[in-house]
Design a protein that fits this description.
Helix content is about 35%, strand content about 15%. The chain is α/β, with parallel strands linked by helices. Strands 3-2-1-4-5-6 form a six-stranded parallel β-sheet, sandwiched between helices. Strand 1, helix 1 and strand 2 form a beta-alpha-beta unit. Helix 2 runs antiparallel to helix 8. It starts with 10 loop residues before the first strand and ends in a 5-residue tail after the last helix.
């Protein structure tokens, strides 16, 4: 009889970072594509903090509240739990993906993290991101490929390309904010309850 202890299985966690300002149907579609095409234990949505190169302008509290609405309305019955990580919001100073990766691996050594990105970002990681070469070679990436777009000839060593049956909408938070500034509700690009929250909180007004 063997005394060898069986190691617990590694938990596969997808990290979906972004400003989510506000969260829209495109964000929900990306997560649906992951749940359908990639076996993971959890998805962690990670709203970013203010950055030197990108002013968000809406509090983390409001963006987290809107993300909670999106999760409740679209993913309440998801077999893989979708959670909100406050790691970047709670970290003071400039946030980088490499710093987030390092902190996650230090805090949760039993998890294997996969960073969810659009495939168009693969062209920039190695040469344009902070500590991009190290990130390129050591991080696990989960890249959603926009139909009809090219990917780099050389890919990161640890990558899963999600490119089957992808539904793609050319929508951004900038588009949603601009619609709201013009007096529109931005429905159906955002969930009606998120639109209601935005109205109550008077967000994205001129």
């Amino acid at each position: 009889m063997s005394n060898k202890k069986t190691r617990p299985p590694v938990r596969r966690v997808v990290v979906y970072g972004g400003s989510f300002n506000p969260p829209h149907i495109g964000h929900a579609i990306a997560m649906e594509a992951v749940l359908r095409n990639f076996k993971c234990d959890e998805i962690w949505i990670m709203p970013s903090s203010e950055r030197l190169d990108k002013r968000i302008g809406v509090s983390g509290k409001d963006r987290v509240a809107m993300l909670k609405i999106m999760i409740k309305e679209f993913f309440a019955k998801s077999k893989s739990p979708i959670k909100i990580s406050m790691l970047e919001l709670n970290r003071p100073g400039l946030t980088t993906t490499y710093a987030t990766k390092s902190e996650l691996e230090k805090r949760y050594p039993k998890n294997r993290f996969y960073f969810l990105i659009g495939s168009e970002l693969l062209w920039n990681i190695r040469d344009k991101w902070v500590e991009g070469k190290e990130l390129w070679s050591s991080a696990n990436f989960l890249a959603i490929r926009r139909p009809g777009t090219k990917v780099p000839p050389k890919m990161p060593p640890n990558i899963k390309l999600v490119d089957k049956d992808i539904i793609w909408l050319n929508i951004s938070s900038t588009l949603v904010r601009n619609l709201i500034k013009k007096g529109y509700s931005a429905i159906p690009y955002i969930h009606p309850e998120i639109a209601e929250y935005i109205t109550k909180r008077k967000l994205y007004k001129k």
